[in-house]
Amino acid sequence: MNGVQPEPPDPASPDDWRALPDLAARALGGAVLAANDDSFAEKENLIRPYPVLHQPRTFGHKGQLYDGWETRRRRDSGTGDGGGHDWAIIRLGAPGTVAGIVVDTAYFTGNYPPRVSVDACRADGHPGLTEILDADWRPLVPVSDAKGDSVNEYAVQDTRRCTHVRLNMHPDGGIARLRVHGTPVPDPAGFADLPLDLAALANGANISGASNAFYSNPVGAIMPGLPTSQADGWETARRREPGHEWLDVRLAGRGVIRVAELDTTHLKHNAPGWAAIEAHDGDIVFELLPRTRLQPDTPHRFVLPNDRPATSVRLNIYPDGGMARLRLYGRLTDEALAAMRRRFEEP
């Protein structure tokens, strides 16, 4: 058995941070807690999971209806810049390290902010808004130019854990969506020495590769909660060549997997016919679940006769199809749990 402990992954480079999960996603528990102003369009729209919608010439009592966050025009000093700026505070659903920020100003053309910035803080536990406002905020993205009706992307170099971000518009205007791409850094105290889902994004796992992701982002397979629709999970295109599709998952840490759940809920005519799981521990590869028949629209649970630790797995599906959720329950090794505690306690 390979006893070498793998090194933690390096922070994402500016070339690949876009593939990391959105830590502010509503499905992970993200929330827009406060904004100094949302006179024209609600702050909660910032983290909606859906593509931005726009219907021209649809006016309500506050003007054109926008799918985003929009503030009033600042008039504080009469100079046009308002003498200040607007802000919104977002609680990350999965606290962690941020590698990149996306500020999407889709359909905001004459009312977008010409500059934006993003700050972060670490406020562990369940702080109230007053505590968050008084927290020690640090910059993730300095005041930077932004374009209207555009996907504005900003790489982040800060590698410290954060729980909240503050999106700033300079001076005012509208933003459709905010995405905070990064790596979860969970508090291992919450594991309480219990078995846990080693494949859960919220516990620190991540998708490291997929053979095909035509219909949906593979990260959906390791998101919290029950799948809500056919689009909530991982689904491939129809395979027209010999072979099969696969999904690679980097586990939350090196651990022993004892139970696998393969959920094909909502996949009625596009579930895989069979699935298998192979585990990796350094250079060692071993079978975790042999090729097994699956049923459509069904949660499957398999107890595994396994006592070998792994750092990652490959889910093979035959020949193609979708997987709504993948759960791998087990325990971290003592060394992996200690490494996770050290990472969480870093300043």
Automatic annotation (TrEMBL):
Top-level taxonomic group: Bacteria
E.C. designation(s): 3.5.3.4
UniProt entry keywords in alphabetical sequence: Hydrolase, Purine metabolism
Catalysed reaction equations from the record: allantoate + H2O = (S)-ureidoglycolate + urea
Stretches assigned to the Allantoicase domain: 29-184, 204-332
KW Hydrolase (keyword) present: yes
Record-linked SUPFAM superfamilies: Galactose-binding domain-like
EC class (word): hydrolase
Similarity remark: Belongs to the allantoicase family.
Protein name per its UniProtKB record: Probable allantoicase
